[in-house]
Amino acid sequence: MFSAVQEEGFEQVVFGHHPVWGLKSIIAIHDTTLGPAFGGTRMMDYGSEAEALADVLRLARAMTYKNAAAGINFGGGKAVIIGDPERDKNEGLLRAFGRLVTSLGGRYITGVDVGTNQDDMIIIHQETDYNVSMPESYGGGGSTSAATAYGVFAGMKALAEEVFPDPRLKGKAVAVQGLGSVGRFLLEYLVEAGCEVYAAEVDERKIQKLREEFDFTAVPPEEIYDVEVDIFSPCALGEVLNDETIPRLKCSLVAGAANNQLADEERHCRMLEQRGITYGVDYILNAGGVINNAHQFPGYNRERAYRQIEGIAATARQVHRLAEEEGITAVGAARRKAEERLTMAGELKKWYLPQEKGNTR
Predict the structure, then answer these.
(1) What does the pLDDT look like over 297-326, one tens digit per residue?
(2) Using alpha carbons only, what angle is made at residue 289 by residues 140 and 89, rounded to the nearest 5 degrees?
(3) Average pLDDT over all residues of the chain
(4) CA pair distance 52, 44, nearest whole angstrom
(5) Same fold, 2-61+74-133 and 145-341
(6) How many CA atoms lie within 13 A of 336 on its CB side?
(7) Any idea which residues carry the catalytic annotation?
(8) Helix (H, G, I), strand (E, B), or coil: what is residue 228?
(9) What whole-number distance in Å separates Cα of residue 246 and Cα of residue 58?
(10) What are the residue ranges spanned by the domains of the chain?
C-alpha cells in the first residue's frame, strides 16, 4: 500500500491510536497546492485496516479534485475512524481524534461524513480549531447534507437540459439509491419538482417514515438498477457502478451524491457512455457540502454559500460540453478542469515566496 501512497503523490498519511478510548484512525493528506487539505471524517466498521487505508486514500485523492473543481482554496484530504459509529463512538474517542487533527498544525481540516454528524463535530472542536460542519448555533453552516443535496439537484437540472429533448425535471422518472442524510433532502427536491421517484434504502424504517412525508415508490435495494427511469441517482456508498450493474441500468443520465460511484473511473465511465448514458461526475455534483463548509471561515453567510453552490450547475454543464467537444470521457473532462486550477495555483506559488530566514536570494 505504501507504493500506492507514493504513486498517487500523497503528501502525508498519519495513523492515530488511543489505547484507552479505542481510537483507531487514519488521516490522508493528498495535495495542499490550493491550501490546507479539506475533507470529512468517515466512521465505519471496516473489515480490516488495509480496507480502511484503501478507502481513505481513494477519498482523499477525490477531495483534491472536488475542491479544485468547486473553486475553493483548499487541498484534498480525508480521515477515517475504524469502528461501528453506533457501538464504538464515545466522547473520549472523538476528543482523541480532535487532538490527532490538531497535531497536524492546520494542514488538515475535517468535517462530517458517513458515520459522523454535527454533534460529533462539537465534541471534536473542544480539542481542535481545525474542523467545520458545526451547527449554526455554533457559528457553523448547519447541515452539510442539505447543501450537498442542493448542489446535486442543481447539477442534475443542468445536465437534464443537456441530455433530454424536454429539459424540465417535471415528469421525469428518477431512481434514488440510498435515503440517508443527503438522499432524503434530494428526495424532497425531486418530489417538489414533480418527478416520479423510485427509491431504495436498506433501512426499512426510513422507507416507512419517508413515505408518510413524500409520494414515491419504494423499490427493494437489489432491484433499483433494473427500474426503467430517465435518471439514476446513486446516493449511498461508492463503487456501485461496475461491470455487473452498468449493463442493468435503464436510464439516460446518472447524477447522484455518492463518492467514488465508479469502480474503475475511466473504464466504467466509458462503459456508461457506450450505452448512451451521460455521467454526471460525482465530485462535480456533490461539492455542495464542501462549498458550504468553506464559507464558514470568513464568517458563515448562507445566502453567499448557496449562491456558490448553485454554480455547480454551470460547472456540470461545462464538463459535459468539454467531454463532447474533445471526445473524452466526463471524468477526463472533470479531471482536466480540476488540474488546470491546480496547475495555476502551483505556478503562482513559484512566482512569489516570502523570504525565509537565511534565504539571501
Answers:
(1) 878 889 999 999 999 999 999 999 999 999
(2) 70
(3) 93
(4) 8
(5) yes
(6) 14
(7) 78
(8) strand
(9) 21
(10) 2-61+74-133, 145-341
